[in-house]
Amino acid sequence: MVMPEVAPGRFLDPDTVVTHFHIKPGETVADFGAGVGYFVPALAAAIGSEGKLFACEIQQELVQKLGDIERGRDWATVTPVWCDLEAPHGSKLPDSSVDVGILINTLFMFEDKAAAIQEILRVVRPGGKIFVVDWTESFAGLGPAPEMVVDEAAAVALFESAGITPTGTYPTGDHHYGVVFRR
Fold it and tell me: pTM of the predicted model, to two decimals?
């Protein structure tokens, strides 16, 4: 299978980036830090009508907005979830209940990155995958402040300190990196 490349000079394109996740219809996926749901349509399409997508977000108003979007599109497979990944069991998801964990433009936001990674690892089943996409830089006032950027090497080190090693990388655009880990 030929994978689409991300066009130069572009930011994240959910439809293209999600192809690198190799999500199978029927899988259970958690989008940790779903925000306004930018990746939700592409992820919902990937899981199909038999899958389950948890759109996890800490900001209550965004969880409400995700719920409005889900109801408006009649996505029975999408469940918005209020969660605090930095708290033990803060996602409210059962242990080992997720096949694929997605963390997009969120790692740099955590104050306690190690705690957030532990919570993600708790809910992703053994053998499951975790896809991390984050900023390579602070770009033209977009993304994190320069001192908050968690570059690829730092992201890998955070997961390795939790006992998880990367299994590969994938293209995401000019201002982001993508790393996959297997639990």
Answer: 0.89
